[in-house]
Amino acid sequence: MVAAFLFINSNSNIYLYNFKEYTQFLITRMDVQVITPIGGIKLGLGNNSPIGETKPGDITPIPDAPCNPKIIDLAHWAVDEYNKENKTSLKFKNVICAAKQEVSGTMYYITLEAVNGCLIGVYEAKVWVQPCSKSKKLVEFKHIRPCA
C-alpha cells in the first residue's frame, strides 16, 4: 500500500502526492468527490463544490505533513500521550501523511510510523487542538499495519 493522497491548490490544479517515494504528479483532468488514504480517512472536497473549494468541516490534506514542524510535533506528542495512557514504549519515527478538519478547533488526522521494540508499525492518531483554551486531546490512536 502506498501512502498517497490528492491535493488541490488555490489554482484548482490537482496533485497526487506519493510519500513512499516522495514524488508529486500533476493530474490534468479528474472528477474527484472523495479521497481515501491509509486508514480510511475520507477527505471531502465539499458536496457539489467546485474543485478546490472546501466547506467548514471538510477534511483537507496537509501536503507538507512529513516535513511540517507543527505536524511532526503533534505526532510526537500523540505517541508520548499514547505511551502515558497505555504504559507502552512506542518511539516516534516519522509522519507519513496528515489531514485536518476545522471543528471547534482543529482535528488532525495523522498517519505515522513508530517503533515498538524492534518492529516498525504504521499508526493513525486523531488529535483535537483547541487554540482558544490552549489544549489538545488525543482522541484516538490505533495500529493500522506493520511497516512494509
TrEMBL record:
Q: What SMART domains does this protein's entry cite?
A: CY (SM00043)
**What's one GO MF term for it?**
cysteine-type endopeptidase inhibitor activity
Any Pfam family matching the protein? SQAPI
Keywords on record: Protease inhibitor, Thiol protease inhibitor
Q: Which Gene3D superfamilies match?
A: 3.10.450.10
Q: Which residues form the Cystatin domain?
A: 54-144
Q: What SUPFAM superfamilies does this protein's entry cite?
A: Cystatin/monellin
Q: Which domain of life is it from?
A: Eukaryota
PANTHER family linked to this entry: CYSTATIN FAMILY MEMBER, CYSTEINE PROTEINASE INHIBITOR 12
Q: So what family is this one in? A: Belongs to the cystatin family. Phytocystatin subfamily.
**Name of the protein described by the UniProt record:** Cysteine proteinase inhibitor
- Which organism's genome codes for this protein? Buddleja alternifolia
The taxonomic lineage of its organism, from the top, reads: Eukaryota, Viridiplantae, Streptophyta, Embryophyta, Tracheophyta
